[in-house]
């Protein structure tokens, strides 16, 4: 059975001021069919499968890093093995590990950087991969008209969606562009494949434009337009 993220834990922004954590070239990979992880966000997970219990234990005493990856379509028949994953994911640092008496654990991952898989390894009970990091430019500044436009359509989206409450915290001028784009990508109600499309954007400006298109499409669906409108 696949693992699902804990949904009752509030999100927290990364300050960006912490000392950078070295990411090993070879990292454990945690594939899920319904979770796409983004830098500058936090991801709480409940871990109960034996192979992933071992993965957490090894990461906690080793490099402190776990790479989240999205499983490709058709994973169900191969889940107990190593079904194909998308090559672009996000590596997270183990910010906390709460080990439960029965061996399960609750963990919190701090999103560090995107990565790309170059080679996979299956010697252990869980998958590992040799990766290279794919960071976006740190001096990124969203074009002010694009940010205002995205904020405007987000505001309209929030007015029509009471379940989107975590997004309300993003509608603030003090939220950095990088945190704004990645947090919105995390909490927007869209499919895992749509989120993977956002994660694979070449730069944050492209990710922001893709977000804009997704929100417009969802608003058009709600209006009954059946199109981009």
Report on this model:
By secondary structure, the chain is an alpha+beta fold. It has two domains: 26-133, LON domain-like (Archaeosine Trna-guanine Transglycosylase, Chain: A, domain 4), CATH 2.30.130; 144-223, no CATH class. It is built from five helices and six strands, in the order E-E-H-E-E-E-E-H-H-H-H. Strands 1-3-4-5-6 form a five-stranded mixed β-barrel. The radius of gyration is 18 Å and the shape is globular. It starts with 25 loop residues before the first strand and ends in a 6-residue tail after the last helix. Residues 1-19 have low confidence and may be disordered.
Produce the secondary structure layout:
Blueprint: E1 26-32, E2 42-47, H1 50-61, E3 65-70, E4 88-99, E5 105-121, E6 128-133, H2 144-159, H3 177-187, H4 192-199, H5 204-223
Parallel strand pairs: 1-3
Antiparallel strand pairs: 1-6, 2-5, 3-4, 4-5, 5-6
Helix pairs in contact: 2-5, 3-5, 4-5
Jot down its keywords.
229 residues, alpha+beta, Archaeosine Trna-guanine Transglycosylase, Chain: A, domain 4, 2 domains, five-stranded mixed β-barrel, 24% strand
Report how far the terminal alpha carbons are from each other.
Answer: 40 Å
Please indicate the count of domains: 2
**Helix amount:** 25-40%
Per CATH, the architecture of the largest domain is Roll
The radius of gyration over CA amounts to: 18 Å
The overall pLDDT, averaged over residues, is 83
How does the helix and strand content classify structurally? alpha+beta
Tell me about the biggest sheet?
5 strands, mixed, barrel
Outline: globular
